[in-house]
Amino acid sequence: MKNTNGIPGANRLLNAAAIAGVALLGVLQFRYATIVCQPPPHQDDWTILASLFDAMHNGRLLTWLILPYNGHFIVAATLAFWADLRFLGLDLSWVRWLCPLISWISAWLWFRWLKRHTESGESIAVALFGGGLVIFSLSYWEYFSLAMGFSAYLSALLAGVGFVWLAEIFAGSQTRPRDYIRAGACLLGSMLTFGSGFGAVAAAFCWCILLSLGWRPGGRIRVPASLTWLIPAALALILLFSQPDLLPFNWPLRELVYRFCLGTGAAAAALVSNASVSLRESVAFGAGLILICLSTHQLLLLPGRDSGDRSQLFGTGLIMCGLSTCLLLAYSRMFIPAEEMLSSRYSMHFALGLLGLIVCLRRQFIASPVFVSALALFVLIGGRHEWRTAPFRREAYNRISKEVLSLPSVSDEEIQKDFYWSSPTDIRTVTHEMELARLGIFRQSAGR
Question: Is the pTM of this model over 0.85?
Fold first, then answer.
């Protein structure tokens, strides 16, 4: 059942309430950033900075800027680190502040897109608030702890903008070459910014092929109504039997399918963050199974949509982007233990898919509020736990800052424990360079 325009006055009140709710979420994330955005490097930052100093000493700075890290590009992060070193004395707190800045830009663009693709008098409250939940979620807290973490936010933003342009291209009767250039530039930028961009590019390629073949509203391809439910149901069975030890035998790609589910529902693990690993895996797996099947259902419904509803193209593009990113994540991280798929650094990979589901469901009177309500349950409860944990993260940064100043007297075992990183050599290398040039923490200590 589709939502009608309803009473314009009531819709305006709902929209205003949704804007206030999104603004509140943004303020809470901003307040969280004031707690955790601290100067010292953390985890991967140490390795990246060690490679930066090595590149500077050996005249390979340009190569370092575009060199892949951990299997993917991080050009935005390397540029930010170099600029910080060159102009700001390696105070990484401002780099961490790029996360909430990009979140606010994303929320503004989300609001603008909804207003542009909404009929006069129609409420955008549910979709707007749902998007705010996804954008300002604290489930992605690990990206705040890393100075390089803003690149994940930027990559997702660029991918989303790229799919906006692609949707306009396929929905419009006339296209201009610059529209293709804009879409391609955004997707290329997403790929060069973070690993999730590879999933965005792969999804865009497959999506464009399907749309060209007629998989679109009013296109040549038609999917029987019964298959739009039977195919997701069959997929649910396959996903269900991918769980370890559920069957007495192992089948090909079982581990990949299982990790695909975990990666898709990783953000839901924050709901039971203090529980056992098995329970957290079960919650993430269940959430992933539901999201994958619901996404498949929406993709199958696309050919039967009203050909005049252009927003559905954008929604299905984002869904394919989320699914493709999680599938590539599962494939590229087969070497890590399955429980590490629940890490906060992987919880953002289906964020664009969630926004796509909100777009596809937003005119359904019952389904849209139910989906956003479930999303609010997971995001707010998980965010409440992280909000309580934030002061302890600040204490950890303060402890790291103090130990950096006396690092020669600290053993490798203590470094691995207190710095939450397995490479004491990188930490000692960066600390030595910072002390020689009076950078970062050493500059601050000297000024006291």
Answer: yes
